[in-house]
Amino acid sequence: MHIPNVSPEIIQEISVAMKRPEGTVFFRYHFDGLFDPALGCGILLEILSGAIFFRLERDQKLNLHFIHSAPGTGTRVASVDLNPLKGSTAINIVLVWSSEETRLHVADSSDPKRKVVGDGILSDKQFRIGTDGKVYQIGDTNVKVMDTSIYKGTKPILQSTAIEAWNNTIEAIKILMTGKSSEGYIFEVICTNLIIVMLVTGFETHCKRRFLELDDEGIGADFDVLVTSFLSKPERDRGEQTAIIEEATTENKTPLLKLVEQGRIDFQNYDRCKTAFNKGYGIKFGEDLGVSNSILEDLQRIISFRHRIVHINPMLGMLNQGKVPPEEPIFPKRDYAEKALNVFDNFIQALHKSTLKLRPVE
Question: pLDDT tens digit string along 287-326?
């Protein structure tokens, strides 16, 4: 992290205070070479706060850029031209960020009427914070990167965000749907069944990653309520909650991450996933997402189909065979694959949007 002329202790306090999904920061800045293009590019400040990244940088054309990045929103950049403020001995800077917008306000400290304002746009350069505490740039101008994973040995340092992983799943399915084979109808059956497996896996991955991302974005989960919901009474009575907290502290992890790592929450199980988001963050799938009951019912039905495909036969020719009471047969055809894709995408997009509305409990 970089904040000039500020002690490490104060920097840490600022970092903790800025770990939130929305906020406003105001400060006065003075540097003799601020308006000197010969100094080239430079970073005025850089702050890492959980999974949130802030940077204020100046380029050689005297443009000031405020970069804000979080897993849920991606990286945005708000820019202003400092040339109209030449002659200022100091400037007032206001950084504004939320899930809806990113803004940069800069004004002459001596004459606030002399000001420039920039609204944020999605950046070609994506910035992410790895589990090693380092900042990674992904992509650049005219350089698009679909998926990024960085490992140190067998441990992941950086992976796609929850929404990136989901969008990659959708893209992979659409590519799969373009495939053709001389095998006829059985190829359509296998593709549809594979798509169902991919959708359910994508559902699990998104929900698990987003559940943890929220904690890193400053929305603390209710750990005590989660413990009550996912640990049995005998486990709680023998001090499992304390053991999880102590182990997390030893490994420099959050208790929430440790709870998930231990497999206490099965995010592929709809009911347990629903309970996790409800008890942890107060999100109720049936009330807060704005999706119809039919979508939620279809989602659960398709998740159950995934189990039959994986554990019975990937060439399963009737998805709801053996259902009691008997239902109208559901065959794994292309139109059902398209329906399943729409059901899952509607749900995931609604869930992600709902998480962006969460705010910390003050």
Answer: 999 999 999 999 999 999 999 999 888 898 889 887 766 6
13 has pLDDT over 90: no
**Would you kindly state where each structural domain of the chain is located, as residue ranges?**
8-123, 161-355
**Partners of residue 158 on adjacent β-strands:** 150
Q: Is the pLDDT of residue 362 over 70?
A: no
Strand intervals (E) in 71-198: 74-81, 91-97, 102-108, 115-119, 121-122, 126-129, 135-138, 150-152, 155-158
> Which stretches within the chain are classed as H helix?
8-17, 162-177, 185-216, 223-230, 233-237, 240-250, 255-261, 270-281, 285-288, 293-311, 334-355
Structure tokens at 249: 């502290």
Among candidate residues 204, 171, 219, the one with its CA nearest the CA of residue 73? 219
Burial class (CB in 10 A: 0-12, 13-18, 19+), 54: buried
CB 147 within 8 A of CB 168: yes
Residue type, 5: N
Among candidate residues 355, 351, 103, 78, the one with its CA nearest the CA of residue 216: 355
Measured between alpha carbons, how far is 196 from 303 in angstroms, rounded to an integer?
A: 8
Residue 195: CB atoms within 10 A of its CB come to: 25
Token pair, residue 194, equals: 């594979």
pLDDT in tens, 183-223: 889 999 999 999 999 999 999 999 999 999 999 999 989 99
Q: Say how far apart CA 287 and CA 329 lie, in whole Å.
A: 30
pLDDT value, residue 337: 96
